[in-house]
Design brief:
The protein is mainly α. It is built from 5 helices and no strands. It has helices spanning 11-38, 43-50, 54-69, 73-100, 109-128.
């Protein structure tokens, strides 16, 4: 739907649904990646199988962009504040965990950012009221 006719009042609901679906796809891709790599027909397909979890992450980026384009300027400002705070705190947490446990898989980074985003978003809403 074009931005001009997109129902702004439904933007939050649509965003949550689309982000939830993308998160489920990420979980499935991250959990299924070892199986895909093991059953790949060669090194080229194994490399492609390694990239499978990136697809839902790009989808999350698209969901964020769509949501941002369909909200008013005030909510855009607030949304960008939450994204900035989430990025800052999330990167600090991820770098700290990676420094403490460098041998672990990086699949946990997106869930950490998701939880951080939810907490910062909730706190941001409480502070703004």
């Amino acid at each position: 739907m074009p931005a001009s006719t997109y129902p702004v009042k439904n933007a939050d609901r649509i965003y949550v649904i689309e982000m939830f679906v993308a998160a489920l796809l990420y979980i499935a891709a991250a959990k299924g990646r070892p199986w895909l790599i093991a059953h790949a027909g060669g090194p080229e397909l194994a490399t492609l199988a390694t990239l499978v979890p990136a697809i839902p992450v790009w989808l999350m980026g698209l969901v964020v962009w769509r949501y941002y384009r369909h909200i008013d300027e005030y909510r855009q400002k607030r949304f960008l504040e939450v994204l900035a705070l989430t990025f800052g705190l999330g990167v600090c947490i991820i770098v700290t965990i990676d420094a403490l446990y460098p041998q672990t898989s990086f699949d946990w980074a997106w869930p950490v950012l998701g939880v951080t985003w939810a907490i910062i978003g909730g706190l941001h809403e409480l502070v703004r009221r």
